[in-house]
């Protein structure tokens, strides 16, 4: 049976988790780049930063894409609904705040005239469906 991690070990592990240039994000970037799409990274939209620092920004199309980890952003899939047993109240509160923050940033972007797509880590398993979904989002006319 594996030993439980100490608080210091867990803290070190958690500090190694990146927020930018993650494997899921890089996969989406490679897929879109291969399809001929060009984008800016991490909220850069010309003159300033966008709310939430979207992972990919298509300024000319006024579209942004967030690539979210299911656990961290409390997705409704199996991974996102996993509840840590250690320090459960802390994790529940942290993940709930993240979900609420994400929703607020999405509202801000949409109010400013941006179309927003969230790609979940679990969606990366089906490459053809993901590709179709991304291309449809980017090619559909902006809403009025």
UniProtKB/TrEMBL annotation:
Gene Ontology BP terms: mismatch repair
Keyword Nuclease: yes
Its EC number(s): 3.1.-.-
Class of this enzyme: hydrolase
One Pfam family cited in the UniProt record for this chain: Vsr
InterPro entries tied to this protein: DNA_mismatch_endonuc_vsr, Restrct_endonuc-II-like
Entry GO MF terms: endonuclease activity; hydrolase activity
This protein's record includes keyword tRNA processing: no
Gene3D superfamilies for the chain: VSR Endonuclease (3.40.960.10)
Protein origin, superkingdom: Bacteria
UniProt keyword terms in alphabetical order: DNA damage, DNA repair, Endonuclease, Hydrolase, Nuclease
Its biological purpose: May nick specific sequences that contain T:G mispairs resulting from m5C-deamination.
Xref: NCBIfam families: vsr
Family assignment from sequence similarity: Belongs to the vsr family.
Protein name: Very short patch repair endonuclease
Naturally occurring in which organism (per UniProt): Pseudarthrobacter enclensis
